[in-house]
Automatic annotation (TrEMBL), chain A:
Matches recorded under InterPro entries: ATP-dep_DNA_Helicase, ERCC3_RAD25_C, Helicase/UvrB_N, Helicase_ATP-bd, Helicase_C-like, P-loop_NTPase, XPB/Ssl2_N
Keyword field contains Nucleotide-binding: yes
Reaction(s) the record says it catalyses: ATP + H2O = ADP + phosphate + H(+); Couples ATP hydrolysis with the unwinding of duplex DNA by translocating in the 3'-5' direction
PANTHER family: GENERAL TRANSCRIPTION AND DNA REPAIR FACTOR IIH HELICASE SUBUNIT XPB, RAD25/XP-B DNA REPAIR HELICASE
Entry's family note: Belongs to the helicase family. RAD25/XPB subfamily.
Keyword Hydrolase found: yes
Stated name of the protein: DNA 3'-5' helicase
Alphabetic keyword roster: ATP-binding, Helicase, Hydrolase, Isomerase, Nucleotide-binding
Stretches assigned to the Helicase C-terminal domain: 393-540
Length: 544, 848
């Protein structure tokens, strides 16, 4: 009995406890994306993009078919194998090349494909004159759009046209007291060899450092695009710590500050902002001769940035993400505009090596009192969540949890200020809210970090702050961290394994039979798919 | 041609005619057929099943049917290139319009089938020289021996086959073709017709003139006869050829290897030896060419044979061309095909389960709509052409049908229920056999007929009579390749053309091409090679096929893996019970080798709605899960269980009741429920103006999940009723193979019928104008006598369809206007109504 089962919807089920599971994972990982990683059976999906990524990384169809046939427990239907080879063979029939006489050209090893492409309606205006049977000129400005459209019609082109060098700027890694982990070095080198592309690393694996390493290898001015202001600060702090860059060399380009320096960190939000229908900050792309553009959390890249990126095809681009799966389904644009996948870390390996540590999650269910139930039932729909999420019943549970983890650093997180104030009072812990002055906040954080302060209550607003300290235990009483993906990432960031090697704990206190519980169910599914252990307890049990 | 007695141990058949035909009458085909043993007749009917449908009344009828145009055409299609060549040789040389003796000996055939002499014909050399075979040592070629009388095993085998098929028959040591073949093969081996019919068609004056010039001192009865005698004598033909010039020779050589017709202006011109000027005229004057139209000249067969030195084919191989292609391990081929087979079974089952719940409508023309086909393709996870194929096969296997309502729906049949219960290999077997046998070609769906109407899947216009044959041809040809060899397309086509040259046509080629694709979709082949489990199927051993396939198919499991993300993975097909229970309490998320189930509130509730309890569900999962049940799942089940049935609705006045006042409060406060006109009657009861059905439906839409309540206050839970259709009648192809038992019974009936129609008998005089009843009385008296003496009698009988039949019966009793008698035709005791018996005769030899 082997460990892999091939499904007709092109998902692959891998039994992880099987003795050859590791070998099998290595064989299928190049051409299948890990979709879910619960405890026993991991699900991988074979998509055209995954197959083309594999092609771009130098794997061939024979290898993929071989891996499936040799590891599959059951005979693999022939139709599926044929489909895989045919799809894979589509990549690279067309190449984009630099041509001394014509600038940019589209070449094909298969004349029929080129004919199809030249005749495609959607490509009108992107292609220039026909140079010979196998070559057609491409308008340099259409390099990105052409790649996007070619992918859509199923003939993804390999971009071999090269990159501009950009303005040189020396950046060195400052490896004092830390060093690049082997997989981080490998990721940066794979990117460097490919020129452009995406590095996939799980949360907490140090994507920022991979970015820094890539910048050091490129040695040019760099534009970094990140999701929000918190990330801007985080990147800045991390770059200052990990590289030879100084405060003066790093600019912040956000809603409040507009600095352009050799290394500039901008948010997607500000880049996507429009005034009277015009993107007002486009000049940032032209402000310097950037040698490298880094996209953080590529799976969250908004549509306008894609459009801008289409015009940046001559610059090196590095995408960083924990997952290639986009909730809007625009994986194809990432592939054609940022580049193919250049590195993918074996998640389980990293976990085994201790680089990342998923937390244990516990959902604690509290019962509403009869009076509360009645009040909940009669509440206006818009107030319902607030009502059930901030039930008094939760306070006692939080108290008990804090008591249980008296020896550890505990963060209590919530969205409703009243509830947090109440909690702060009953726990005797300071409450950090959005209106708190920075100085005071810093002081409390420092006290928490040093261990002087064991418990801290923070509001949702505050937890967006960059310097939120790490903790061994987090208790969430209300609210969520945004999308499910973001939530898992933030958990990974806040929670650190304990000194004794035990994993961190995440408690979610939830009111039974209410909206609160419905939200918790979604969270539970996602966390379980990410491989977090998940438990449910009754408050009564906990308190007993 | 030299007369040659059949050599001992060679030749087609011992020549002595065993029939009881009187010696003075020439032997006939019917007589020969009658003389064949039961085994031989059985072999004939097995090989040509169309002859036995319906069962011919006697041997005469059988002979008639065996020599009809269509029946012979059908059997010609089945001959391979070599056997066909042998048949052509028999037709060419054994034509009874050639000079006596009629027929051809095996030795003559061997001589005529030797390879052509080494120098290519058409160079005008060696005309008229004696016709000794050139030495050719090619191993492939059928090789003549020095002894003209010696034949070869391959030739014997081919002749034996032709005799078995009753295409040729032996007549006093010679072989003769059945007569219809001379029409069906008008130019055997590209030779023209014999001289005799060609001459007979000429104007009498022309023939007389030719005869007068060429055979002035003939003793033959007619001019045609004397000319025919002339042309059948090789020596005299050689002499005639010697007197024409080089140009005329070249002209003849051009026609010698066919086609045997030439075009010339004014073919019927008057010519004689003296005035003949041009080469054509010199040939016409010597009857070496005979006009067959105003502008057509034909080379008589005798002359053609002479020019070819008696050789019929320039090239003739008794072995089929070898396969060429790439090798694959036969294990991989079988495994991959089995994977495909499994996919097909699963897809079809999934679709038919869905159709049982949501049957698609039947189009007015009887087919399935395009949109429904697309949906079916999605359900089965195949493309639309694949879906069309699977549906057609399912129909052919009797698994889908229409219900009998006016606006019909497509439904699985009752047969489907039985099918689903059988093991996967048998399920596949049934589909595979149905596919091979059906004359419907699924790939025609979507094309337009001559009237421009689109043909629909399961609808009319998809039948192609040649389809089953094309499939069998393809599979049988593939079966001849080594296991694991993937023949190239060209090599396959060549081989098929060799096997059945008469079958080649663009229609057949298209059908074969379609069959190639379909066979791989259904898992009979993979990568273009035959799967291991298909071989026994073709060899008529379905059990063996099932056994082989079973080895490759995944075995049903009784365990699953339940995971924290609320999924359960069945790492293989599940035993039917478990699969059904799981499908009830979980949604199927993906299928394939494994099945992934997802537990949701809705799915658990569905299980509860169907009468499963919380303990039943967790118990089921605990029993079958290899992994510990995740705690979150237990919570989910018990949460849903706890809430299930909290809210109940009634009909009459329409009411809602709930043990928790707060829930009703919630409902009453729900603005979306205002339309239901809810009034609170008590803390735990709410009434509604709406009836129960509307109420339940609306509340479910709003996200409440009321359970309907029956009159006595119990929850009424229901499951949708499963609907089924009757199986469709699947018509049998006329040349579908019959079982050995059927064929044996047919031969028995034939013999009995033949005896009844041919046996010598003495009619019992029956009064024709006596008093009423006297005729019946006479019949009864004769039959009673026979019964008493235990004699067999012949009766003429009008059967229930009004047909006059004759039978030889063994009467046992005569009673109440009926004769009870053993009827050998049917091998059964039968009652004959006396008033239907038109004649009675005593047998000359009653115990024979």
């Amino acid at each position: 009995m082997s460990c892999l089962i091939v499904q007709s919807d092109k998902t692959l089920l891998l039994e992880v406890d099987h003795e050859s599971a590791d070998e099998c994972r290595r064989a299928i990982a190049p051409f299948a994306e890990l979709e879910r990683a619960p405890e026993h059976v991991h699900t991988y999906r074979i998509t055209p993009l995954a197959l083309w990524n594999a092609r771009a990384a130098g794997h061939d169809a024979e290898q993929a078919v071989d891996a499936l046939v040799s590891f599959s427990r059951f005979p693999v239907p022939q139709g599926l194998l044929v489909d895989i080879s045919e799809t894979m063979d589509r990549y690279g029939r067309l190449t984009l090349d630099g041509d001394p006489a014509h600038g940019l050209v589209l070449r094909s090893s298969d004349r029929a494909v080129l004919e199809e492409v030249v005749r495609a309606k959607k490509l009108k205006g992107m292609l220039g004159e026909r140079i010979d049977g196998d070559t057609v000129a491409v308008h340099p400005s259409e390099r990105g759009n052409l790649k996007q459209e070619l992918l859509r019609i199923g003939w993804p082109a390999e971009d071999l046209a090269g990159y501009v060098d950009g303005e040189a700027h020396e950046i060195d890694l400052a490896e004092d007291g830390w060093e690049l982990r082997p997989y981080q070095r490998e990721a940066a080198e794979s990117f460097r060899a490919g020129g452009s592309g995406v590095v996939v690393l799980p949360c907490g694996a140090g994507k920022t450092i991979v970015g820094a390493a890539a910048m050091a290898m490129t040695g040019t001015t760099t534009l970094i695009l990140v999701t929000n202001t918190v990330s801007v600060h985080q990147w800045k702090a991390e770059l200052l710590r990990r590289t030879s860059l100084t405060e003066d060399e790093i600019g912040e380009y956000s809603g409040s500050r507009k600095e352009i320096r050799p290394v500039t960190i901008a948010t997607y939000q500000v880049m996507a902002a429009r005034k009277k229908g015009v993107h007002t900050h486009l000049e940032l792309f032209e402000a310097r001769d950037w040698g490298l553009v880094v996209y953080d959390e590529v799976h969250l890249l908004p549509a306008p940035i894609f459009r801008m990126t289409a015009d940046l095809q001559a610059r090196r681009r590095l995408g960083l993400t924990a997952t290639l799966v986009r909730e809007d389904g625009r994986e194809g644009d990432v592939f054609s505009l940022i580049g193919p996948k250049r590195f993918d870390a074996p998640w389980k390996d990293m976990e085994n090596q201790g680089w990342i540590a998923p937390a244990d999650c516990v959902e604690v269910r509290v019962d509403l009192s009869d009076a509360e139930r009645m009040a909940y039932a009669t509440a206006e729909p818009e107030d319902r969540y607030r009502f059930c999420a901030s039930t008094d019943a939760k306070n006692r549970v939080v108290g008990a949890l804090v008591e249980r983890h008296a020896e550890e650093q505990v963060l209590v997180i919530g969205s409703f200020i009243d509830q947090l104030d109440e909690l702060g009072e009953s726990l005797g812990a300071p409450v950090i809210k959005g209106d708190m002055r920075n100085k005071e906040r810093e002081r409390l954080y420092d006290a928490f970090r040093s261990g002087e302060l064991r418990t801290l209550v923070v509001s949702k607003v505050a937890n967006f702050s960059i310097d939120l300290p790490e903790a061994g235990v987090a208790v969430q009483v209300s609210g969520s961290f945004g999308s499910r993906q973001e939530e898992a990432q933030r958990l990974g960031r806040v929670l650190r394994p304990k000194a004794d090697g035990g994993s961190a704990r995440f408690y979610a206190v939830v009111a039974r039979d209410t909206l609160d519980q419905d939200y918790a169910a979604h969270r539970q599914r996602f966390l379980a798919e990410q491989g977090y252990a998940y438990q449910i307890t009754d408050a009564a049990e906990l308190l007993a | 041609m030299t007369e040659n007695p059949t050599a001992e141990g060679s030749g087609p058949e011992p020549s002595d005619d065993r029939s009881d035909t009187p010696r003075h009458r020439p032997p006939t085909f019917t007589g020969w057929l009658r003389s064949r043993s039961d085994e031989e007749l059985t072999a004939l009917l097995s090989a040509r099943p169309d002859l036995a449908r319906p069962v011919p009344s006697d041997i005469g009828a059988l002979a008639g049917r065996a020599t009809t145009r269509n029946a012979v055409l059908r059997v010609l299609e089945r001959l391979d290139r070599f056997t066909l060549a042998v048949l052509e040789a028999v037709v060419a040389l054994g034509d009874d319009r050639l000079s006596e003796p009629v027929g051809v000996t095996a030795a003559e055939l061997a001589e005529a089938l030797r390879p052509a002499p080494a120098p290519a014909p058409g160079t005008g050399t060696a005309i008229g020289s004696d016709s000794s075979g050139g030495p050719d040592t090619s191993a492939v070629h059928h090789r003549p021996s020095e002894e003209a009388s010696e034949t070869t095993p391959v030739l014997d085998r081919a002749l034996g086959e032709l005799l078995r098929l009753a295409l040729v028959w032996p007549d006093r040591g010679r072989v003769r073709p059945v007569q219809v073949l001379r029409e069906l093969l008008p130019h055997p081996a590209q030779l023209g017709p014999p001289a005799r019919p060609l001459l007979a068609d000429l104007p009498h004056a022309s023939v007389e003139r030719l005869a007068g010039e060429l055979t002035p001192d003939s003793t033959a009865s007619t001019p045609v006869e004397s000319l025919a005698m002339l042309l059948s004598d090789p020596g005299r033909v050689g002499a005639l050829l010697g007197r024409v010039d080089e140009r005329a020779h070249r002209l003849l050589e051009g026609m010698a290897w066919g086609p045997p017709n030439g075009t010339v202006t004014d073919a019927r011109r008057e010519v004689d030896l003296a005035t003949a000027g041009s080469p054509v005229e010199s040939l016409l004057a010597r009857a070496l060419l005979i006009p067959t139209g105003d502008e057509t000249l034909t080379l008589p067969r005798e002359v053609g044979l002479h020019l070819r030195k008696g050789v019929l084919f320039r090239e003739l191989s008794s072995e089929p061309p070898a396969f060429e292609g790439r090798e694959r391990s036969s294990g991989t081929v079988s495994r991959t095909a089995a994977g495909q087979a499994f996919t097909v079974l699963r897809g079809l089952e999934e679709l038919l389960e869905l159709w049982a719940q949501e049957p698609p409508g039947v189009l007015r023309n009887g087919g399935l709509g395009v949109r429904d086909l697309r949906r079916a393709a999605q359900t089965m996870e195949v493309d639309e052409s694949g879906a069309a194929l699977l549906l057609e096969v399912a129909q052919a296997a009797g698994l889908v049908g229409t219900d009998d309502r006016l606006s019909g729906e497509w439904l699985p049949t009752r047969e489907y229920d039985l099918w689903r219960e059988s093991p996967p290999e048998e399920r596949w077997l049934r589909l595979a056999l149905a596919w091979i046998g059906t004359d419907r070609v699924a790939s025609l769906a979507g094309s337009r007929d001559s009237g421009g109407r689109v043909r629909n899947v399961l609808g009319p216009g998809l039948a192609r009579p040649g389809a089953p044959q094309a499939r069998r041809d393809l599979l049988n040809t593939l079966a001849e390749a080594e296991p694991g060899l993937v023949p190239s397309e060209e090599s396959l086509a060549e081989r098929m053309a060799w096997r059945h040259p008469r079958r080649e046509s663009s229609v057949h080629t298209d059908l074969v091409e379609t069959a190639r694709t379909e066979a791989s979709v259904l898992g009979l082949t993979a990568f273009g090679a035959l799967a291991g489990h298909t071989r026994p199927l073709l060899a008529g051993d379905p059990d063996g096929a099932a056994r082989e396939l079973a080895e490759e198919l995944p075995r049903p499991l009784d365990h699953i893996l339940v995971q924290g993300d609320m999924t359960a993975v069945a790492p293989g097909p599940l035993v039917a019970d478990l699969a059904r229970e799981l499908a009830l309490v979980a949604e199927v998320e993906s299928t394939g080798g494994a099945t992934v189930y997802r537990f949701t509130e809705d799915s658990i509730r569905r299980g509860l709605d169907a009468g499963r309890g919380v303990a039943d569900i967790t118990g089921l999962l605990e029993r079958h899960s290899r992994t510990p049940l995740p705690q979150a799942l237990r919570y989910l089940v018990s949460d849903v269980g706890r809430r299930h049935g909290r809210l109940r609705a009634g009909t009459a006045s329409g009411y809602l009741r709930c043990d928790e006042p707060s829930l009703l409060e919630e409902l009453l406060n729900d603005r979306r429920a205002e339309g239901l006109g809810l009034i609170r009657l008590a803390p735990t009861v709410v009434a509604s103006r709406e009836n129960r059905a509307t109420l339940v439906e609306r509340l479910r839409q709003l996200g409440y999940h009321p359970v309907p309540e029956s009159g006595d206050g119990a929850m009424s839970l229901d499951r949708p009723e499963v609907r089924r259709a009757d199986p469709v009648e699947v018509s049998e192809a006329p040349d579908r193979e019959a079982s050995a038992e059927t064929v044996r019974a047919t031969v028995r009936a034939l013999r009995a019928g033949d005896e009844a129609s041919t046996i010598a008998r003495r009619p019992v005089p029956l009064p024709t104008d006596g008093p009423p009843g006297s005729r019946a009385a006479a019949v009864m008296a004769a039959l009673s006598d026979a019964a008493r003496d235990e004699r067999r009698v012949w009766i003429g009988y009008t059967d229930t369809d009004g047909r006059q039949v004759s039978r030889i019966v063994h009467p046992s009793s005569v009673d109440g206007g009926f004769v009870t008698a053993y009827d050998a035709t049917r091998d059964a005791v039968h009652k004959f109504a006396v008033h239907r018996i038109s004649a009675v005769a005593e047998l000359a030899d009653p115990d024979a």
